[in-house]
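All the exercises in this workshop are built on plain-text protein records. A record pairs a protein's sequence with a compact description of its fold. The structure tokens are whole numbers drawn from a learned vocabulary of backbone shapes. Once this layout is familiar, the rest of the handout is easier to follow. An example says more than a description, so a record of this kind follows.
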Amino acid sequence: AFAKTCRAEITLLHATPRSLLQDQRVRALFQHLRSLPEITRWHRSRGDAVGAILEHAKPRAHQLMVIGASARTNAANKVPGTVTARLLDEAKIPVLVVKAKQKSAVPMAADAELAPVDYTISVVVDKWFAENTFHAHEFEDIAQLVKLKEQQGLTISLGLPTLNEQETIGNVIKTMRQRFVEEFPLLDEIVVIDSDSTDRTIEIVERLGVPVVKHPDVLPQYGTWTGKGEALWNSLYVLRGDLIAWIDTDIVNIHPRFVYGILGPLIREPRLMYVKGFYQRPLQLGRKIQARGGGRVTELTARPLLNLFYPELSGFVQPLAGEYAGRRQALEQVPFFVGYGVETGLLIDLCTRFGLRALGQVDLEERVHRNQSLHSLSKMAFEITQVVMQRVGEARGVELVEQLNRSMKLIRYEDDDFDLDVADIQIHERPPMATIPEYKKLRMGEGGARD
């Protein structure tokens, strides 16, 4: 904060005993510090700490020295330690000593024998949460978004995946077209990607004059799967924008913020590659609202699994949210799971490929939609668990999912009797769209994807 105020550059010097170089907390701290843009120079000493600090802290090179002093268990001891005392006495530039309120989680030499506990991932996630979490109201000035879009020469597509959404699709299209096409030219195209609806969904869409594509017809030479992820993967081939936004089409309380909220951070922050929405999600049973939060599968399956195996993603409020947007250059580089695991897979793969700092999330306030049965949610949770296990196994060079049972016993209660139904639930994934020859040819014909 001090450096930002003074517009100063920071040189970081960390004196580390050899005995601590393999400590997980120390190594994670180094990794975190290297990611901070404020630090322009980096030095690490393994020998005489005081000598190394004095060697670098020369008046012509630096104007201020800041020393971190850990809190001691003995609060009454206010005498500086030996290293701090020597630096205060021998330094040729001003010295600022900053004492922590709590004892450092990163071990000092005296703590080297303590069992390693990964505290630093919490620091990384907290920092990410503070810097990469937005609110939709920050981007409600649509005219400003259009101006920024035009300055960057961006094109933007909205994809609407549908499967029997006759009750809501009409209002979704009207709301988005009025605000982002007729009033403000934020969207360059709106396309419905349908998964063989059997109700009046396609009829309604065509009557409104919006293009509709059935996902099994997009790249039929590669076969077809059922599932939302399959529709999204195919939509990458159909949609033309540099930025691609998807929102679910079963939203009852549809509002323009569901689109400008997820697009705004990408337009304003070039470093971001992917943004997910989150919201309060009331569970409506009849006329009663019984619960609020992130959704049952989110809170009972997805977030616990991510906290366990991918703690860097633990700051995402709703990893399964169906409203998200990304840059084509990122989305085309990662595989898509064809079913309910698509959101989880995208988070893990995009983080692995581009880093946590390239991901963001935005508060969309409240979302009301059609609730699914517990049987459907059980199958969804089973599929998401497989996706996480697949990526965990791949990271360790083990075919973990192949060793797991992938049939699920579903308990059915009917006529005062219990029965067991068996569901075969196996995950499948599509390769990165950038590897598909037809896609590469299409993009080359359009002048190539923009950087």
User: Anything to note?
Assistant: The chain has a mean pLDDT of 85.
